[in-house]
Amino acid sequence: MEPRYAGSPTAVVFEDDNGKKGRKKLVELLWGDLFDLVEEPAGQWARVGVRKDEGTKIHSGWIKKSDIQTDPVLEVTFVDIGQGDGCLLIMPDKEAKDRDRRAIVIDAGEGDSMKRYLSYRFFYPSERRPYQFHAGIVSHPDADHYKGFDHVFGVKGISFANLYHNGLVERKGDSSLGPRTDKKPRLFTDLIKTRTQLEKLLKADAKIPGRKLYPDMLRKGLEGGKFDNFQMLCRDDKFMPGFGPGEEVTIEVLGPVVEKVGKHEGLRDFGSTGFTKNGHSVVLRLSYGNVRMLLGGDLNIPSEELLLKTIMRRAVPDPEKDPKKYEQYIADARAKLEVDVAKSCHHGSADFASLFLEAVNPVATVISSGDDEPHSHPRAETLGAIGVNSRGRRPLIFSTELARSAKDAVRDPRKERADLKRAHAAVLKEKDKTKRAALGKAFRKLVDETINRTVQVYGAIYVRTDGKDVVVAQRIERGRAGRAWDVSELHPDEDGKLTFQSKHENGH
Questions:
Q1: What distance in Å separates the CA atoms of residue 405 and residue 396, rounded to the nearest whole number?
Q2: Strand order through the sheet with 2-6
Q3: How many CB atoms lie within 10 A of CB 62?
Q4: Residue 233 near residue 227, CB atoms below 8 Å
Q5: How confident is the model over 213-240, as pLDDT tens digits?
Q6: pLDDT band at 134, cuts 50/70/90?
Q7: What are the start-end ranges of the H helices in 250-322?
Q8: Residue (of 133, 157, 88) closest to 228 by Cα position
Q9: Cα–Cα distance between 250 and 147 in angstroms, integer?
Q10: Cβ(409)–Cβ(379) below 8 Å
Q11: Residues 390-406, buried b or exposed e (16+ Cβ, 10 A)?
């Protein structure tokens, strides 16, 4: 058997009927989904082994040869972790075995949703079958971004080669972000840049009464051997290690912005602990071929203005007094910031700089927000502003909150399914084969419609690209005629810029 990948935008695998093509759909795969090529007889069909649900069983089926591709794609999955952020990147890494492709987790939400999704995605790592991620990134120390790592660290088979963060580690004492300078702009100067500095801080913090969840999470990971290298990322790095110029995928580090005032170096105080933590999120701009993406944590107005000022190195012209200079400023800003797909900062909060959004100018935006939260994210004005400041006649706005409407009440679908099947076997004592088959079919339908409706299957926004075209998709909760995906496609226009063409526009 050889690993293969589904073609764009989706590919259907049909049931295997004793080595022959069945008439029913077994599963609809999204572009880039992995399967095993079992045999490739003459004709237009190939026999494959494919994963159907959140279990580990491989089902046999048939797929058109024209729907098979050899090379993997870049996978970016915005996991439905409720209120917060959680993103999984899997690099194309065409020369590596599929299991050895570099995977990066950017934030992990607050609960255990990311843990459950990663366990499902990587076939339930364990001590006997461990999996090491290339990197984990904590964009900033807010619980709805970092606390989920505590659950991930609890999985015995999961570890990280690198753990990156923004340099700020909350600690016990009078100043939760450490010492700060007095003169404006006030800077927090005790930046934790290395593993050695982290070990020193955690040792001192343990002696102070009180409790802080962020250092507790890092201590658990450190003592449990869950990460090797620990490092701060900031604009001074220019690129994330291993993803610099000349690499297949480049990842620029745009923020946080470290400032130097006199003898002091640090991150600016934006007025409150919350604003400061959010504003100094790790900001990444990923490029793969013709495709660009922005992952910006929880940026806010002051931090976006500082980032623009740092990048542009000049003041913003008055659009009314000098519209031509303003237009040129926007054009220059877009040359450095414009992307095709952007994660909306701060879950669709209204605390954003319109100028920054205008510079980013995406075709598609993904919002990660939750149902049970007090902020009313995403805000109505934010949705409007994203639409106004995006490219195309019909810009795309995706939401993890809208992608799953079913309640995520089942924590361990595999166990629940097994228990129900045992109950099913005990109850179904009907001797009549026809009646027993009908009862069995109804029971399996009930199982699939309830247990499958979890974060392992629904709610995520999937971005797949080969560096030229892009597919953005979400699972349909109640698909018809075997249709499992709602898909939007981005393709380059005559100038090479990615665009979305709605099927409802008829080319007008």
A1: 20
A2: 20-30, 10-17, 58-64, 45-51, 34-39, 2-6, 68-69
A3: 21
A4: no
A5: 899 999 999 999 999 999 999 999 999 9
A6: very high
A7: 273-279, 301-312
A8: 133
A9: 28
A10: no
A11: bbbeebbbbbbbbbbeb
